[in-house]
Amino acid sequence: MIVAVGIALSLFILALVFWMLLTRRLREKYAVMWIVIALSVLLLGIFPQLLLWATALLGVQVPANLLFALAITLLLGVSLHLSWELSQAEDEIRRVAEEAALSRAEIDRLDSRIAALEAQHRGSGADSAPPA
């Protein structure tokens, strides 16, 4: 029963990831990670003896301990990757905000210069206008 649930879960994850890719709700670089996870779960669901083999190879006494250790390592890796992505995004947001502030200051400076030129033009145009 648990094998069928694992296989169904991995197939569901694969279908969901491909759907999210097709609808542009998930970027490719994140999809790769989820596809690898889903395929790993599918392999362990189809061939549960792989977990027993890996447990014996690594000297772990209980296969569930190996599975939990791998899951924790994966979660730490995902957390580290997302922290790195967040840091990159914060740097980009700060840079764009600074550029927007500089652009806004330049626009304000040009607006005030245009207003001064228009006022100067109106002032000189009123003196030279013929009386009606």
Compact summary:
The chain has helices at residues 2-22, 28-46, 49-58, 63-128. It has 132 residues and is mostly helical.
Structural features, described:
The protein is an all-alpha fold and 132 residues long. 88% of the residues lie in helices and 0% in strands. The protein has 4 helices and no strands. α1 packs antiparallel against α2. The radius of gyration is 31 Å and the shape is elongated. The chain starts with a helix and ends with a helix.
- Taken from the alpha-carbon principal axes, the silhouette is elongated
Number of helices: 4
Strand tally: 0
Q: Roughly how many Å apart are the termini? A: 99 Å
Structural class: mainly alpha
Estimate what percentage of residues fall within beta strands: under 5%
Radius of gyration: 31 Å
Outline the secondary-structure elements:
Layout: H1 2-22, H2 28-46, H3 49-58, H4 63-128
Helix pairs in contact: 1-2
Overview features:
132 residues, mainly alpha
